[in-house]
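Lab notes, practical 5.
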Amino acid sequence: MLTIWDIIKAPVITEKAINLKEKTADTRQVLTLEVDARANKIQIKEAVQKIFKVEVAAVRTAHYAGKTVRRGRLVGKKSDWKKAYVTLKPGQTVGEFGEAV
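Output from the prediction step:
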């Protein structure tokens, strides 16, 4: 059984994620999070609502295959992972380090 702390692993901090978070055109904020691959949209929504104390409008998810890596002659593979785009309801915001504003 996954707890809310197992579902959300880390925020994704990329240029695209920061632009989505700071976009003010439609007054909806989008959080980009790395989540557990076994979690579904309902579990992700509940975890974000409980942790950040905000209302969630929608959740979109994407699966990513791990990349092949080489260390000299040895070949390995990074883990597969899952990303969630969480859209908050209008007027709901989350600060820089996760504190609800």
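Observations recorded by the TA: The beta strands are 8-11, 30-35, 56-64, 68-71, 74-77, 81-88. Residues 4-88 form a domain with the Alpha-Beta Plaits fold (CATH 3.30.70.330).
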